[in-house]
Amino acid sequence: MKIYYKLIIFLVFLFFMSTSSYVESSEDQKSLNKSVKSTFLEAFKDFDQITKTIKLLSPICNEKKAPPPPPPPLLNKNLKIKNKEISSEDKDIKRTQEAAIKYLSQGYKARSAFLETLNQEKLDIRDFESEDKIAELANDTKIVERWRYIRKNWFKDNENLDSPWDFNELKEVAKEMWLVNKHWYKAFKENHDVKVTSRGEGMTYVKNEPGLKDMLDKLSEGGPHKVDFTTRPRSNILSTSANKPKNNNYAQNATLVWIFSLPPGHKGRDIGKVYSGEDEITFPSGTQFKITEVFIRKGKQKEFMKSEFGKNTEYIIHAIPLP
């Protein structure tokens, strides 16, 4: 664009000089021509100098600003380590929550049988964090057969019981149960609003609890019986419903119904709804219960509270979970 300006000035100068040659020469005219020529030359010279100056300055004017430097690295190395530890713990807690839900739903039979096997063999789930310990357990024929027996006879689970022990299944179950035991109080919240829960259970549990069975056999008459009996630690994770027995499907069809009064500081936790419509309070493996009263529904008491309990309910057991 600057070249065009110089060309225009030059053409105007030529035009003026050519037209001035047709004018009669005179001293005044010659003086005027000389003056105009000098003016145009000076202007042209000044313009050329300005152009050169602009060219020199243009790189400076058009220079791009350098991006800001990156932020300095964290100086507190301990902060990084702390964040990693929190992230790892959060990951374990999430896995614990998923494991508990699996236990209380589709994975109940295999996992309950596994915990009961450890209980009968006087083994502690806390010892099975390492892969070596799990492998040692899987190679123990006595443990394998005990697990199969309990799974089949207690929980009526006939799935894959004739095939060799699946090491991957065992590893998964053992790791999950170890996580649930370790992170129980961190992974699940307390629910202080629930004061009473219930649970329906079949007589299979009673038959496999000699002390409880003997106690119930002594109570022959129908009606209420005051007792003072402490159960052995429950091997399984025990789910109870905050709903009344009449709104609890399992309790309606059960022979034995537990009514739990929850004292402050109990181990039960709210792990969320596993089944639609049921608010659950769940107790960890190893929980013991103190039985304070047993009501036997037979004879004249057969129809006791028939609007609350199902027609199959024979025993109503009132108990308190121990801390």
Characterization of this structure:
This protein is α+β, with helices and mostly antiparallel strands and 323 residues long. It has three domains: 2-61; 89-187, no CATH class; 196-321, Toxin ADP-ribosyltransferase, Chain A, domain 1, CATH 3.90.176.10. The chain contains ten helices and seven strands. The strands form two sheets. It has a five-stranded mixed β-sheet with strand order 1-4-7-6-2. A two-stranded antiparallel ribbon has the order 3-5. The longest helix has 35 residues, at 27-61. The protein is globular. The termini are far apart. Mean pLDDT is 77; it is low at 20-25 and 73-82.
Topology readout:
Blueprint: H1 2-20, H2 27-61, H3 77-103, H4 108-120, H5 131-138, H6 141-153, H7 167-187, E1 196-201, H8 203-207, H9 210-218, E2 223-230, E3 238-241, H10 249-253, E4 256-261, E5 280-283, E6 289-296, E7 315-321
Query: Given this structure, which CATH class of the largest domain is correct?
Result: Alpha Beta
- Helix/strand order: HHHHHHHEHHEEHEEEE
Percent of residues in beta strands = 5-15%
Please state the oligomeric state of the protein chains shown: single chain
List keywords for this structure.
single chain, alpha+beta, Toxin ADP-ribosyltransferase, Chain A, domain 1, 3 domains, two-stranded antiparallel sheet, 10 helices, 7 strands, 48% helix
Give a brief description.
The chain is of the alpha+beta class and 323 residues long.
